[in-house]
Write a sequence for this structure.
């Protein structure tokens, strides 16, 4: 597996680190005409960090008098800012309606973690995730009655959450936080989440012009990690998810109870992956070592291999899925071999670094193929991959 970084990747990581930790970029690493500015932004966009990267690229381009690059960065930042403004307006309408209805909902991830950034408007936003527990269906009905344009679909109604949208912004009301980690892990994690989110540990933050209930520091630290680790094992993630986690740990570094955090990581069997991913974050993403709980230095080859896997990923595997479909050969046997090779490489890469979930996942995928469940003309859906995958521990 190739681990060496491309020049565009190195420069993108440099700009990202500068944006994350409020540092000035090294202008001497760039050249007005020789730097592949578009290539850097393309990688950043693939990893949904283009708002952050553009903010620091703009400073470099201005210093080098590359005015066309400065303009491109301004447009990128404006695009990300407008998307955040739209999502904020939807969040405000939903939160106010829930307040009128007397329904409790806790904002998870999203704009709740964006507040950990020095400039929240530069973080690329996605959807709105609200924890509503056992009252999810009732809350969705009340929102439909109180907010014009809210629509929930039967297809989006699962045991985990109820999905809908408002003004083109995806909205998820969560009954549970996880459903694909194996029965024991799911039971522990969902019980803990309900206690944390509907207990006394939440707080209120001023977001979107209103008071929004958000989780405590411990919940954010564990849940953000659990969420992206689960997706990394199953279908891939972008660097933005790691940035959320690092900023959460940094901003809450004096508030997080490390004894309680360690107890939860051990109980949920997350400590070893936390330490490997944490070491990579310190080594390559600028995370201050003193703010990374349970930091443990890893063999250089492991952190570099992990970084390579992450850079080859995209936002929840979306880009990789499109690349996979575009490269599908004609012919049933050729397509089946292409599919097996592609997905085997994906799972083997995970298994090398995280053998506990990775090896059984690889074996289950091969077993599914032997039972003729690997489709020759399409990539396995996310649900198919999850059904073939074990607990992402």
């Amino acid at each position: 597996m190739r681990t060496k970084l491309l020049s565009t990747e190195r420069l993108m990581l440099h700009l990202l680190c500068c944006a994350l930790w409020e540092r000035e970029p090294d202008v001497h690493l760039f050249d007005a005409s020789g730097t592949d500015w578009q290539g850097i932004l393309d990688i950043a966009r693939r990893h949904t960090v283009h708002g952050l990267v553009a903010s620091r690229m703009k400073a470099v381009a201005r210093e080098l008098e590359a005015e066309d690059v400065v303009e491109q960065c301004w447009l990128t930042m404006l695009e990300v800012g407008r998307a955040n403004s739209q999502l904020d307006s939807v969040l405000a309408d939903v939160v106010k309606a829930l307040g009128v209805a007397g329904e409790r909902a806790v904002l998870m991830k999203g704009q709740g973690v964006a507040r950990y950034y020095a400039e929240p408007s530069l973080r690329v936003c996605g959807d709105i995730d609200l924890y509503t527990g056992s009252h999810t269906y009732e809350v969705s009905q009340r929102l439909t009655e109180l907010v014009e344009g809210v629509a929930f679909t039967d297809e989006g109604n699962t045991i985990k959450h109820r999905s809908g949208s408002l003004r083109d912004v995806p909205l998820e009301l969560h009954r549970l936080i996880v459903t694909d980690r194996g029965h024991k892990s799911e039971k522990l994690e969902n019980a803990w989440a309900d206690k944390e989110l509907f207990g006394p540990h939440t707080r209120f933050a001023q977001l979107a012009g209103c008071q929004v209930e958000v989780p405590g520091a411990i919940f954010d630290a564990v849940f953000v990690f659990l969420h992206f680790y689960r997706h990394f094992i199953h279908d891939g993630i972008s660097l933005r998810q790691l940035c959320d986690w690092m900023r959460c740990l940094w901003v809450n570094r004096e508030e997080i109870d490390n004894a309680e955090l360690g107890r939860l990581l051990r109980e949920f069997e997350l400590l070893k992956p936390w330490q490997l991913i944490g070491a990579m974050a310190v080594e390559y993403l600028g995370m201050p070592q003193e703010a990374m709980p349970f930091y443990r230095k890893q063999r250089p080859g492991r952190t570099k291999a992990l970084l390579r896997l992450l850079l080859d990923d995209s936002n929840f595997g979306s880009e990789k899925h499109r690349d996979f479909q575009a490269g599908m050969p004609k012919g049933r046997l050729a397509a089946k071999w292409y599919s097996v090779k592609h997905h085997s490489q994906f799972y083997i890469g995970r298994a090398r670094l995280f053998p506990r979930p990775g090896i059984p996942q690889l074996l289950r995928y091969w077993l599914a193929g032997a039972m003729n469940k690997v489709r020759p003309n399409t990539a396995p859906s996310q649900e198919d991959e999850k059904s073939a995958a074990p607990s992402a521990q």
The chain is about 55% helix and 10% strand. Residues 373-393 have pLDDT under 50 and may be disordered. Residues 282 and 289 are 6 Å apart (CA to CA).
